[in-house]
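Handout, page 2. Input:
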Amino acid sequence: TVGILVAFLGYIFYTSGGKIQDIVLSKTGTRYIRSAAIINFAFAAILYFFKELNGIPMSTTFVFCGLLAGRELAISYQHKTRQQKAIVFPMLTSDFMKLMLGLAISIGIAFLAAHFS
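Output:
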């Protein structure tokens, strides 16, 4: 099982981050190191809060996508243009639907694993 994990991680590095990197790069200003550092710091702070200071379990994927979505909304409202808002909401809807699909697949795999074990 460790070999499979290493193989998948190797594939992700080989494809330069894969699909999740495409999602991150589609967001406003994430190509700049300062913006990326701020996102990483906020992500680390949120994860620290949920791991050390709170007993509520939290998916890191949902935290990261929520952080990016909130940042995108804040940037679009700061610009206050209809064109920017018209771009943001379809992008956020698409990201949300991808999250829900991933959640449904995860739940399906968990039910199948419980059923066949």
